[in-house]
Task: inverse folding
């Protein structure tokens, strides 16, 4: 019997020792803290590591986390200065710095921080309108963190950061804000479009201006060159006329050649005949036929001359001039029919033959000139007949 009791007692003693050791030694993890009460009164705070207490005398309370903690609070209804109810979600970052105060100064520090946050939000947001509330998150965060840190300091809690997670205005306000934002964007788009159109028109106008300037410069240069060309042409003609010693007869003929161009324009019903046309006709008639009395014109100098033209040309008729050598009379003009029938001997020397061909060519040219003169006289008569309807008729 004694042999059985001794091992049992020894076992019981060992178990009691183990229990006592287990109750005496407490291991606290890192970043944790546990408060110890002796006979219901705070005794000490167990630090991380191995700690010893008196079993059955000391009571160890639950561990308190010393790390930074994050708490998210649901939307709190807050009224702004312009009487709009908004829901604000907040996120709180805090850390327990004094386990004893956090355990004995406040019952539930999480709930206490939530209530203080809601109260401070109402106080801060109540002094701002909606626009300022939406654009002043940093200001609100700093104000909340200062107030919460001051209020929770006696609880052994340090508030490190407060963030406004969301601000939810009413549905009607959200719709109005969307319309305002859409209108603002459309306004900016219209302004940008107008600026683009304005810039495009400015650039187009600048391009057209440069194009017009260049075109005007080109036309100016072209007109200058054309004027210089005309001036050179006129100078050349003027020099040629003076170099060839042209008399008034040639100029009168050139003057009469331009008269038919007066009636070439379409739709002309009235022509003004200058008074110098009669003088030109007399000069030209005297050049080819003689003066107004019917006398033959004397040759201007040596060389071949044309036969005198009739003094007066009937309407529709043209005189034909026969050429003759220098100083040789015209047999037909002297009224010799036989000489007119036999104009030249059968055989002429080579020099006389060439002279005769030149005289024939000159006679043909003279005949064409008289035909043109007759045509001009007809046109002048027709113009005078038409001009007689509007004023006195000037004789040719």
Result:
């Amino acid at each position: 019997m004694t042999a059985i009791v001794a091992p049992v007692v020894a076992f019981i003693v060992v178990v009691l020792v183990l229990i006592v050791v287990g109750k005496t030694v407490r291991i606290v993890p890192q970043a944790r803290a546990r408060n110890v009460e002796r006979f219901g009164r705070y005794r000490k705070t167990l630090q991380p590591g191995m700690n010893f207490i008196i079993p059955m005398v000391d009571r160890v309370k639950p561990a308190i986390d010393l790390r930074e903690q994050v708490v998210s609070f649901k939307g709190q209804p807050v009224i702004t200065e312009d009487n709009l109810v908004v829901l604000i979600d907040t996120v709180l970052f805090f850390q327990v710095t004094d386990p004893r105060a956090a355990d004995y100064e406040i019952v539930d520090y999480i709930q206490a921080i939530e209530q203080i946050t809601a109260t401070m939000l109402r106080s801060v947001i109540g002094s701002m309108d909606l626009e300022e509330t939406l654009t002043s998150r940093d200001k609100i965060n700093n104000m909340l963190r200062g107030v919460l840190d001051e209020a929770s300091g006696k609880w052994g809690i340090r508030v490190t950061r407060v963030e406004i997670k969301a601000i939810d205005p009413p549905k009607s306000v959200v719709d109005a804000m969307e319309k305002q934002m859409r209108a603002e964007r459309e306004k900016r788009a219209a302004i940008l479009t107008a600026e683009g159109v304005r810039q495009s028109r400015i650039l187009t106008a600048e391009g057209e201006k440069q194009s017009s300037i260049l075109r005007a410069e080109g036309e100016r240069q072209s007109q200058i060159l054309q004027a210089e060309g005309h001036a050179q042409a006129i100078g050349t003609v003027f020099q040629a006329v003076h170099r060839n010693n042209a008399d008034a007869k040639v100029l009168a003929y050139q003057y009469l050649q331009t008269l038919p161009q007066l009636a070439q324009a379409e739709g002309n019903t009235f022509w003004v005949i200058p008074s110098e046309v009669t003088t030109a006709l007399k000069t030209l008639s005297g050049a080819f036929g003689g003066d107004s009395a019917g006398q033959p014109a004397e040759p201007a100098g040596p060389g071949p001359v044309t036969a005198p033209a009739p003094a007066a040309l009937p309407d529709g008729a043209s005189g034909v001039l026969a050429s003759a050598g220098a100083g040789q009379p015209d047999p037909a003009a002297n009224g010799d029919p036989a000489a007119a029938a036999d104009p030249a001997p059968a055989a002429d020397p080579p020099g006389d033959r060439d002279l005769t061909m030149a005289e024939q060519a000159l006679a043909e040219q003279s005949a064409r000139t008289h035909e043109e003169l007759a045509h001009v006289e007809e046109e002048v008569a027709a113009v005078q007949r038409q001009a007689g309807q509007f004023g006195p008729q000037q004789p040719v």
